[in-house]
Specification:
mainly alpha
Length: 615
């Protein structure tokens, strides 16, 4: 506006002045939408310099001016303009916190002042500004800002009280439900607030809201097994809902032992919403476990590209943490630590950052540093993975008492899952002293009886927990209960146990005289483990020597009531029989490998007649 135009406009009489203020508001609003903030400041400054009377028109112009500063993130200048507005209205700067708020315009100015203080991390001043606004003038935005200020000042109960009232006004506000649950509000209070919100929705929407709220409460209580069943029911009805897919994937990942299901849920989520970034670093953690470098690289690239789209999202930790995982997989030590520090700077309370940091230190042999990071992770959010790494780190340091205490703490936190019980059993097996040996138990078990009870309870909670079944079998074998050990190992293999359980089964079969079954089991174990990480080849060599000694002494195998074993002395195990035994596999076994080492093995091992003795 030129000076001449402004002078003419300012000299209008009072009856036309309101109309011109309205025109100024419309003009400035258009400039704000275009991002021309300097023009807005110039227009408002000219209007203020005309010595406007302290009425609603003056407040409206100050509202436009401070909104412009706020959108530019110039919070100090916005607060200064707000104080000038209060002085223009007859209040001193020192007394601005004691203004008698009686209009919506004044309330809006105080809320903006509180938001500026909040962004400047002056949480106490922000709360003081908001508390001057009467309850009848507090809009939903005011109440949400008040919740943030209460939480920032550590007033969790006050924040929960406001959110409970908000939930009654905002049906399907799932973020409020999650926040209430994280504030440890009782399930009855949350359910009552949800019921109040359900009254405003249709019956179908109300049923869905109740199911989702119940699912979130169960998840927060760390009852992941029950939560998975609830997710399966909801996903059957809404298979392409990103919210349900994200929570289902997190639930599978955090429950332990369900990585395949978690990765499948994350894959489905990325098909539905390619730009999903929230908690995708947990998906990266699973890919790191699986060694899927290509998938992790693609995920890190997608997340970083999505987070760079907005200034607010650029400060989140997920992208930096995914880059740290990728660097760790590639063996780039300096880059890994640098990206981890960037993730910590972006979000100092992100639990997965400290979990990965502790895991990385643990893999590098820095167990003391790993313990510190893992305890930071558990302080922010209790996870089974952090407990497992903590136990391993304490055991590496020789702190068996701390390892036992940590494992019992995990059982107390995740009492409805079999994984922490298995963790406690592992620690008790290795714990020195008479803790377990003096505890007698029916069935002949006197060693590690308490650990055995942990494994059995874990299997009752999760019958397909193959690690618990395998460790239980090892304890039974140590106590001389070989038949029970075979049954436990067969159960573990049916639940999807690894090659180690198959090698142990072959060992036990050899000890009980089931040589044909032992040879078949160990040959299959060798084919499934070409690199011999489980010692399958060494166990097969040991059994070969034993069989040759028995054959030279004239007694090939002891009598066995089993018809197949009884026919064994009359049917020597030749090379052809051994090869055929490898081909007899169950429906879940993988085909035999064809590496050079295995071809050499097949040509070397022989249990044939005296004519093949040189071989």
């Amino acid at each position: 506006i030129s000076i001449f135009q402004y002078t003419s406009w300012a000299n209008f009489n009072s009856s036309r002045f309101t109309m011109n203020v309205d025109a100024l508001k419309k003009r400035c609003q258009s400039l704000i939408e275009l991002g021309l903030y300097d023009s807005v400041e110039a227009h408002c400054s000219l209007a203020i310099c005309s010595k406007l009377p302290p009425n609603t028109d003056a407040i409206a112009i100050y509202n436009i001016l401070t909104e412009s500063f706020f959108l530019q993130h110039d919070y100090r200048k916005c607060i200064s303009s707000l104080n000038s507005a209060f002085q223009h209205l007859g209040y001193s700067s020192a007394a601005s916190s004691r203004i008698n708020i009686d209009t919506d315009f004044l309330a809006a100015l105080k809320v903006r002042e509180a938001k500026c203080h909040f962004h400047l991390r002056e949480y106490n001043l922000a709360l003081k500004s908001l508390e001057t606004v009467p309850a009848q003038l507090r809009s939903l935005d005011t109440q949400m800002t008040l919740v943030k200020c209460y939480k920032a000042n550590g007033l969790r109960r006050q924040a929960a009280t406001v959110q409970l009232e908000l939930l009654k006004q905002l049906p399907f506000a799932l973020e409020i439900v999650e926040d209430l649950i994280s504030l440890n509000v009782s399930s009855d209070e949350v359910a009552a607030a949800v019921d109040g919100a359900r009254s405003q929705a249709s019956p179908i929407e109300a049923a869905l809201l109740k199911a989702v709220a119940n699912m979130l409460m169960v998840k927060h209580q760390l009852r992941y097994d029950e939560c998975r069943r609830l997710f399966d029911k909801l996903l059957a009805q809404h298979p392409r809902c990103p919210f349900l897919l994200r929570h289902a994937a997190e639930c599978y990942a955090l429950s332990g032992g369900h990585s395949d299901e978690a990765l499948a849920a994350y894959q489905q989520l990325r098909l539905v919403d390619r730009l999903s970034t929230r908690n995708m670093d947990l998906c990266g953690y699973l890919l790191l476990d699986a060694g899927a470098e290509v998938d992790l690289n693609r995920l890190a690239s997608d997340v970083m590209q999505a987070l760079d789209c907005g200034a607010a999202d650029a400060t989140r930790a997920e992208g930096w943490l995914l880059l740290a995982m990728l660097s760790a997989m590639r063996g780039e030590h300096d880059r890994t630590l640098r990206f981890v520090e960037k993730a910590v700077a972006a979000d100092p309370r992100h639990w997965l950052t400290y979990l990965f940091k502790g895991r990385y230190y643990h893999s590098q042999g820095q167990h003391e540093a790993a313990v510190v990071s893992l305890m930071q992770s558990n302080a922010a959010f209790k996870s089974l993975a952090a407990y497992e790494l903590l136990v391993d780190a304490h055991m590496q340091l020789g702190n068996m008492r701390e390892a036992t205490y940590t494992a019992r703490e995990a059982v107390a936190a995740f009492g409805c899952s079999g994984a922490p019980l298995t963790l406690l059993g592992r620690v008790l097996v290795r714990a020195p002293g008479p803790t377990n040996e003096n505890v007698a138990r029916a069935g002949g078990v006197r060693k590690h009886a308490e650990a055995l009870r942990c494994f059995e309870k874990a299997l009752r909670l999760d019958p397909r927990h193959h690690l618990a079944a395998q460790l239980r079998a090892e304890v039974l074998l140590e106590n001389g209960l070989q038949a029970e050990c075979v049954a436990a190992l067969q159960m573990a293999l049916s639940a999807g146990a690894g090659v180690g359980a198959r090698v142990l089964l072959g060992k036990v079969q050899g000890l009980t005289g089931q040589y044909a079954e032992a040879v078949q089991t160990l040959h299959l174990a060798v084919s499934l483990d070409p690199e011999d990480k489980t010692g399958a080849l060494a166990e097969l060599d040991r059994l070969e020597k034993k069989l040759k000694i028995d054959r030279d002494s004239g007694v090939y195998a002891p009598p066995d009531p089993n018809p197949a074993a009884a026919a064994l002395p009359h049917r020597p195990v030749t090379r052809a029989v051994a090869a055929a035994s490898v081909q007899r596999r169950g429906p879940h076994d993988t085909p035999p490998a064809t590496t050079a080492a295995e071809r050499r093995l097949a040509g070397r091992i022989s249990f044939g007649t005296d004519e093949d003795g040189e071989e």
